[in-house]
Design a protein that fits this description.
The chain is α+β, with helices and mostly antiparallel strands and about 200 residues long. Helices cover about 20% and strands about 25% of the residues. The protein has a domain of about 140 residues. The protein has a six-stranded antiparallel β-sheet with strand order 1-7-6-9-2-3. A three-stranded antiparallel β-sheet has the order 4-5-8, with no helix packed on it. A hairpin with a 6-residue loop joins strand 6 and strand 7. It is globular and about 70 Å long.
Length: about 200
């Protein structure tokens, strides 16, 4: 019975493993490279804007919030941020929970500009492991420049996304964890001693 509980605990530990966001451009870059082209073209979810913005007509100004115009998902449903709920700041909180929607988060692109100098800065984060489905974190450009927009990118269930070694890595982790758990939970084998007969003892 004890081995059964150890096995279940090992499986739970594997399923709840939380991978941190990977900062692909520490300190930010002056060019906003964004995620890989395939994901940028087919996996854009939505963008959060911290400042009033325009889309097509420069006379129509939208308030800060989710753009919800060009992406395949709308922000505030599966993913969230506090970017537009307070004044401009060098950090912003994000969270997401995609459940069994068929979507999961792959990249978060953070953008900002210095309103005094007009300098742009972008910082790209990659979401890996189990945190692609559910997680939360605090984002920054370089710790000093204010964030003005955050774009979310992920899996588009209508299109296959080329594996970035993430799925394969998760599979290896799961198989390795199950193998270790089975090894721990297997009862020790007791070697049988050959039976001795009364004749051999005399």
């Amino acid at each position: 019975m004890k081995h059964k509980y150890l096995y279940i605990a090992a499986l739970i530990a594997l399923s709840t493993a939380h991978a941190k966001l990977i900062d692909l451009t520490p300190g930010g870059t002056v060019i906003d490279y964004g995620p890989p082209p395939f994901i940028a073209a087919n996996g854009f979810y939505d963008e959060a804007e911290a400042l009033p913005y325009t889309i097509y007509d420069p006379n129509v100004v939208y308030p800060p919030g989710w753009v919800s115009h060009f992406g395949i998902l709308n922000g505030g449903q599966y993913f969230f941020t506090d970017l537009f709920t307070h004044s401009l700041a060098p950090t912003a909180s994000v969270s997401w929970n995609f459940g069994n929607s068929g979507h999961w988060l792959l990249y978060i692109d953070v953008f900002g500009f210095d309103q005094t100098t007009g300098a742009d800065l972008a910082n790209l984060y990659q979401v890996t492991g189990a945190s692609a489905f559910k997680g939360q974190d605090i984002l920054t450009l370089n710790g000093q420049m204010d964030i003005t927009s955050i774009s979310f990118y992920g899996r588009n269930p209508a299109l296959p996304i080329p594996d970035q070694q993430g799925t394969f890595g998760l599979l290896l982790l799961a198989v390795g964890g199950i193998a270790v758990a089975r090894r721990i939970c297997q009862p020790e084998k007791i070697e049988k001693q050959p039976a001795t007969t009364a004749a051999s003892e005399s």
